[in-house]
Amino acid sequence: MSSRIKRTFTAAALTLLAIAVFMTWWLFGPYQIRATSVFVEDGDPFHKVVRKLKDGDVVKSPWFFSKIGLLIGLDRHILAGRYDFDRKVSNFGIMRKLWRGDIVYATITVPEGYTLRQIGTLLDQQCGGKRDIFDSLVRDSQYLALLGVNTVSGEGYLFPETYRFPWGISVDKAIRMMVGQLFARVDSGMMARCDTLGYTLHDLLTMASIVEREGLHEDEFGLIASVYRNRYRIGMKLQADPTVIYGMGNLNRKLLTRDYQFPSEYNTYLHLGLPPTPICSPGMAAIEAALYPDSTNYLYFVADGSGRHVFNRTYQEHLSDIRQIRRNRK
């Protein structure tokens, strides 16, 4: 082998070695950053993701990072969501996090009886769902119709459950998941029972939402549902306090006598039949109680001050119970 070829070979080998050393250092060499989060949104192109990493001071050499990322196909594997980065990172660690879709998840529990307003606040505060978009979508009848919700409001259709959402989830996806959970739980047998009662799904959820907000103990749901079913069946006004409260913007105080005359389409003391929409998201216990109320002839009930209720058939008995409860409180 001639000396020229040896020199060329040696130079090439050293060059390759230098490149290998540089790439190893560049990929695995740790460096300090401030702990930060980077949000990748649906549809973000790879160059925008890299720019967000650069703006967050996570990536120090965006051009080279972008080229390597494209070379290994990283641009095709990035999941939308929030990526958290600690104070010590490496380019390899950043790429691996993006490749694996190592996003932050939030476990969100929507309690039974929550209203749209409360659910919107929960999503906004606990998983970064944008409240203004949520408020718009759940009152957009055209959008709701695409989800099978044929009404002017999504109230009552977002099923109360524990969900695991990616932090920063689009509210569209969150709403679809919650509505989908409702339709998964209300099966064909329940809908057949609705037909027997003369209810639509909307009627069922509305009745169940009143039961949900009226009762504190699930073992009373069947009795409460029987009262409202009996009133509904004979054409009596439902006279449900929670509907008045909802129509007044969900008061956080006790109702006053004058409140029962508040001019709201939700005021079931003024209007016959069910209110126009549910007043909260009912859970399965309330839905089942509305579907299968206890068999009673009760038309009245009153809170006894302990979180439970006293039920009876006549208005005279009802007034007598009220007087007795007031005496007991004194």
Mean of all residue-level pLDDT scores: 92
Number of helices: 14
pLDDT < 50 stretches: none
Q: Give the total of beta strands.
A: 8
N- and C-termini, Cα separation: 112 Å
Q: What's the number of structural domains?
A: 3
Beta content comes to 5-15%
Q: Pairing-aware structural class of the strands and helices?
A: mainly alpha
Helix content: 40-55%
Using only C-alpha atoms, the radius of gyration works out to 30 Å
> What sequence of helices (H) and strands (E) makes up the elements?
HEEHHEEHEHHHEHHHHHHEEH
Characterize the biggest β-sheet.
2 strands, antiparallel
Strand order of the largest sheet: 1-4
Q: How would you describe the shape?
A: elongated
What does this structure look like?
- There is one protein chain.
- The chain has 3 domains: 3-100, Endolytic murein transglycosylase (Dna Ligase, domain 1, 2-Layer Sandwich); 105-185, Dna Ligase, domain 1 (2-Layer Sandwich), CATH 3.30.1490; 188-298, no CATH class.
- The protein is built from 14 helices and 8 strands.
- The chain has helices at 3-28, 46-55, 62-72, 91-100, 116-127, 131-137, 141-146, 171-185, 188-197, 201-214, 221-234, 241-247, 284-291, 315-329; strands at residues 31-32, 36-40, 81-85, 88-89, 105-109, 162-166, 300-303, 309-312.
- β7 (300-303) and β8 (309-312) form a beta hairpin.
- α10 (201-214) crosses α11 (221-234), α10 (201-214) crosses α13 (284-291) and α11 crosses α13.
- The termini are far apart.
